[in-house]
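Suppose you are handed a protein chain with no further information: no name, no annotation, nothing but its sequence. What can you learn? This example shows the usual starting point.
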Amino acid sequence: MVVSAEAELTRIQRQELKDLYLESRTLRQGRAVVTPIDQSERSRERGEFYRHYIGKTPAQLRAHWARLIFTGRGQPPQTFADSQAVVERLVRDPNALGYIDARFLDERLKVVTVE
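A reasonable first move is to predict its three-dimensional structure. Written in structure tokens, the prediction is:
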């Protein structure tokens, strides 16, 4: 998990991560509200992220969001095409949280510890 180098967020609980990415819940970090950023369904990083941190396969994730959208109980995180697009968004928004291919990590970003 990564954020802008300017962000206050340094660590996040695994359950908070699940709540952000699966239930559209709000996470406050200081005065800021953390905004989850997602990648395209076709990205390798997305599949790895959801399997490792959230415990869902792509099919389970599609079914989950279809159910929430249909019932009006939530909207999925904003989706970006790839790691480069996520990096550009994170740099512009210090309240955004995302995941990227490690090759895109640079001094404009910092790693968030998942506990």
